[in-house]
Amino acid sequence: MIQNEWDFETLAVRAGHVRTNEGEHSEAIFPTSSFVFSSAAEAAARFGGTEPGNIYARFTNPTVRYFQERLAALEGGESCVATSSGMSAILAVMLGLLKAGDHVVCSRAVFGTTTLLLQNIIGKFGITFSFVDLTDMAAWEAALQPNTRLLFVETPANPLTEIVDIRALADLAHGNGSLLVVDNCFCTPALQRPLALGADIVVHSATKYLDGQGRALGGAVVGDKERVGRDIFGVLRNGGVTMSPFNAWIFLKGIETLALRMRAHCDNAMQLAQWLENHPAVEQVYYPGLVSHPQHVLAQQQQSGFGGIVSFVVKGGQEAAWKVIDATQMLSITANLGDTKTTITHPATTTHGRLTPEQKAQAGIAAGLVRLSVGLESIHDIQRDLKRGLDLA
């Protein structure tokens, strides 16, 4: 059976791996900075691009290539570029596809550092940005300009799990001659495939669910051969925002269990969201699996699961939210997510802490908001740990 006939679970375990002459069963790690050529002519041919092969580990490494090919297969893309972190993946997209004078429309509902990267760093090079409400299609359309090159979204978004209609937004972008870039970190290709819905490029923080155990930093960009395989790869080759072979190997091992883990995350998160919704200390719960979520029906249509992120607002503002967090004894107080261990954080003072009060208000980051990345522990133990602080609140 050829690779393009395999199901998702098989691709997650088998795609991209090419055994060496040693016949290893698991993917090999190539911790080398450079590669040796058989002759000067071969070296020239590889550097000149007329012959495929490894050159220098900044931009060619077999272990990294295994990861790239596996993720591209899972997302349904032609090409993948692996980077040193999720933020460097977004940086590579912006540097690879934009030039001075271009315009970008971005959702307000993105990771706080993404907003700051665009405004404070990319914006210094003559590129302008408009920020709109993720779910307001009229606002997206009104923000488009003749020079709009990219539309950028997270869906579901961090931390309120807001969801946009990817197909509708892709149609809007393409009608303006623009590209749609989707951060698929919360769902992963196990639950959502943006390229199949019309998006042009998918971005990942591999640090999150692709690893799944909080072990390594990494990022990835998936799309077509021209934009990703050429333009964005050029940023990697010349800029060096490179994934290490060891980290690539870790992500390969994580992806092998991705489908199983995402189903388990979804199951635990759904039970926890329903439990939180009925707790008297909780003002509001944000989870796409709840009928009360504004985009619940849309989530059912474009996702095969609702994900592992649950956010909720505690009555009593920041003081009450901190009491809930500090009372936990098992949950990990950390801003990372996508881990087998449940993590808990206060977005207003951590992930979105560097935003201005106005930006926080526009993004819906309330003082009492708590974000959970629901792990794979017993759901009863997770509830028991949260109950301590919720009862105090």
UniProtKB/TrEMBL annotation:
Coiled-coil ranges from the UniProt annotation: none
InterPro entries in the cross-refs: Cys/Met-Metab_PyrdxlP-dep_enz, Cys_met_metab_PP, O-succ-hSer_sulfhydrylase, PyrdxlP-dep_Trfase, PyrdxlP-dep_Trfase_major, PyrdxlP-dep_Trfase_small
PANTHER family xrefs: CYSTATHIONINE GAMMA-LYASE, TRANS-SULFURATION ENZYME FAMILY MEMBER
Reaction(s) the record says it catalyses: O-succinyl-L-homoserine + hydrogen sulfide = L-homocysteine + succinate
Gene Ontology molecular-function annotations: carbon-sulfur lyase activity; pyridoxal phosphate binding; transferase activity, transferring alkyl or aryl (other than methyl) groups
Keyword Zinc in record: no
Keywords, ordered alphabetically: Amino-acid biosynthesis, Methionine biosynthesis, Pyridoxal phosphate, Transferase
Record protein name field: O-succinylhomoserine sulfhydrylase
Pathway of action: Amino-acid biosynthesis; L-methionine biosynthesis via de novo pathway; L-homocysteine from O-succinyl-L-homoserine: step 1/1
Key word Signal present: no
Family the entry assigns: Belongs to the trans-sulfuration enzymes family. MetZ subfamily.
Highest taxon of the lineage: Bacteria
Entry's EC annotation: 2.5.1.-
PROSITE patterns tied to this protein: CYS_MET_METAB_PP
Top enzyme class: transferase
Cofactor: pyridoxal 5'-phosphate
GO process terms (BP): 'de novo' L-methionine biosynthetic process; homocysteine biosynthetic process; transsulfuration
Functional note: Catalyzes the formation of L-homocysteine from O-succinyl-L-homoserine (OSHS) and hydrogen sulfide.
Residue numbers carrying N6-(pyridoxal phosphate)lysine: K208
Organism: Thiothrix caldifontis
Cellular compartments per GO CC: cytoplasm
Subunit structure, interactors included: Homotetramer.
